Amino acid sequence: MYTPNSLKMNDIKEQHDFIDEFGFGLIISSSLNGTHIPFVLHREEGEYGTLYAHCAKANPHWKELDQSEVLIVFSGPHSYISPSWYAKAPGVPTWNYAAVHGYGIVSLLNNKETLDTVEEVVEKYEPGLLVERDIITDDYRDKLLGAIVGFKIELTKIEGKLKLGQQRSNEDQQGVYSALSNSTGLDQQALADYMKKLNLGLGAS
Questions:
Q1: Can you identify the CATH homologous superfamily of domain 5-168?
Q2: Are residues 123 and 176 in contact, defined by beta-carbon separation less than 8 angstroms?
Q3: What is the value of pTM for the model shown?
Q4: Which of 63, 70, 89, 153 has fewest C-beta within 10 Å?
């Protein structure tokens, strides 16, 4: 991923936090097949962490994954940025976004490991389903287990990019934040919230 030094997300904790927050990723194999699925991250497993996921067995993509190298793309908030939002002209339109790319080797999981992975995803997004078993009963869960394939990816490289206009002046950042936060678009609102979380556009140096 092309990333100028001023836009790099270098801290691995920050990269891991990003994956935890925006865990719905795109896994791409050498054949250029891609599958969109949720991932859970085990931060302390391996040098850069290990990702766990599962996909439908009916999806033929999994058949080419075992022991292969893959790219996983995690995307955060993004939006069009108008040059009219900057304090001074001239300027050009651009697109601001945040993303993390992970690279690693895939290993298929056995049934128990796959079940653990599925339940970890459920625990992350709706833990109550693991307590009240009237919706996902044990019998129903075990029946569905035969229709999915679990796998893990030990990360060998991870890189992050924050293209949020942080290289611009405080006045320009404030103008972008103000325009985004006053927009009715969901993508614009999400990017404004992310900028606020990182203290961009709020008069920070």
A1: Electron Transport, Fmn-binding Protein; Chain A (2.30.110.10)
A2: no
A3: 0.93
A4: 89
